[in-house]
Design a protein that fits this description.
Length: 221
């Protein structure tokens, strides 16, 4: 008879508990009403309010630092104009609304439905079993595959995982996991390209102006 591996058994139990409770998390494509009805349950979740700008320089620097560390910080300006954001806190302690051990969930909506959901593990580090469970929530009838799709510039949001059917992508960064629609990622790419073209035209115009002023500027030297 094989002796059970206690470490492996414990890991399996953690994964099973996460999957069995996966319905409490938001799912990309759902309406805001459905998302909030799921998360904002008694002893489970609550709305989270962003820290306001502070007159204290140290507090303000910390607030700005936390914003810059958000994995969607550099790309959210390319999201659809009708976007809105909901921020929630979901406890990781069963039957208790813990304010220390849980998840900070950022959901971006457009057209009445979620298009990107970013989960940040708080109190403990994000582990591989939690990543698997969160991906499982959003896989539908497809399966996730590990890929390499770096973002930045005109390459969209960037992603580490993609569904086999191509409908969804995901990216892990530290204790954050973002899951978003491929449609949003493609939209961001197009907006980045447009912004790059505008910058290039502005730079060309500036160079022309500088070229025209150069003779007068250096006259008499």
């Amino acid at each position: 008879m094989n002796t059970p591996n206690p470490v492996r058994s414990a890991c399996v139990l953690v994964l099973l508990s996460l999957v069995s409770g996966q319905s409490v998390f938001a799912r990309v494509g759902e309406t805001q009403d459905v998302v909030e009805r799921r998360i904002l349950q008694p002893n489970l979740g609550k709305k989270y309010f962003k820290p306001k700008e502070s007159n204290d320089p140290r507090e303000e620097r910390e607030r700005q630092r936390e914003e810059r560390e958000q994995p969607f910080y550099d790309v959210k300006k390319f999201f659809p104009a009708d976007k809105s954001e909901g921020i929630y806190w979901k406890s990781a302690v069963a039957g208790q609304l813990s304010s220390e051990n849980g998840w900070k969930v950022h959901v971006f909506y457009a057209g009445g439905r979620s298009m990107l959901e970013a989960y940040r593990r708080m109190g403990e580090g994000l582990n591989e079993f939690e990543v698997r469970a969160l991906l499982a929530v959003n896989r539908g009838n497809s399966s996730w595959k590990k890929v390499s799709g770096e973002g930045g510039g005109t390459n969209g949001i960037g992603y580490d995982y993609e569904l086999e059917d191509g409908s969804m992508r995901a990216k892990q960064k530290g204790d954050w996991l973002m899951i978003f629609s491929t449609r949003l990622d493609n939209y961001v790419v197009e907006q980045q390209k447009t912004a790059k073209e505008i910058r290039e035209r502005e730079n060309d115009l500036l160079k022309q102006q500088q070229q025209g002023k150069a003779p007068e500027s250096v006259m008499g030297l």
